[in-house]
Amino acid sequence: MPIFDAHFHIVDPRFPVIPNQGYVPPPFTVTDYLERVRGLGVTGGVVVSGSFHGFDQSYLLDALALLGPGFVGVTQLPATVTDDEITRLNDAGVRGIRFNLRRGGSESADHLGTLARRVHDVAGWHTELYVDARTLPTLTGTIAALPAVSIDHLGLSAAGLPHLAALVDRGVRVKATGFGRVDFDVAPVLRAVADRNPHALMFGTDLPSTRAPRPFLDADVEIVTDTLGPELAARALHDNAAQFYRVR
User: Fold this and answer.
1) Considering the domain 3-244, what is its CATH architecture?
2) CA-to-CA separations, 184 to 123, 180, 191, 248, in angstroms, rounded
3) How many helices and strands (H and E) does the chain possess?
4) Lesser CB count within 10 Å: N end or C end of the chain?
């Protein structure tokens, strides 16, 4: 079954890396990524800027050029970014903006509503949130008003799952990523999200799984296929994200 890897990071020492809470990730280059996913059936995917990338775009543009067709990017931008810069990044294959509300390194939630709407108006981008779902009630009104949103790593916490479910009912997408980061059994949550909205789940490897208590395993793909069955698994592993990121 083909996989569109909706979430992975590239850490290339040729480009700036910013320590986050004292943490500096080890290198994980495009070559490392392609070698790691060899045999998984990855046909494309999404390079996602992490807290340690800050607002640097040089690593992302290089990675997208090396990966080629089928791969797009999600970046972090300051509220001061110009429309011309958004357009330039869009032309290079960037398709979304990320707010890292858990670890920082991105623009703050104070600018979430205005900046998310602006990148959508300028380039059709969606917004991605790295957030513990327990905190979603303070953001629900803002998120619900945005044109397109996804939430990373199944929302991370069992206590936040009811809040996540409420947003799924409003059309928010959910990344089936970081299975080693969450504090709950993944399978029933995958099933519950898919039952609420079969278009919501978007699988990603989360490689190289920086700071995750348990890194990505090939067996995580089997969790998706065994839990969802052929039709829903095909959507979660490939179709939903390929559509969301506008990759044919």
Assistant:
1) Alpha-Beta Barrel (3.20)
2) 36, 10, 13, 33
3) 9, 8
4) C
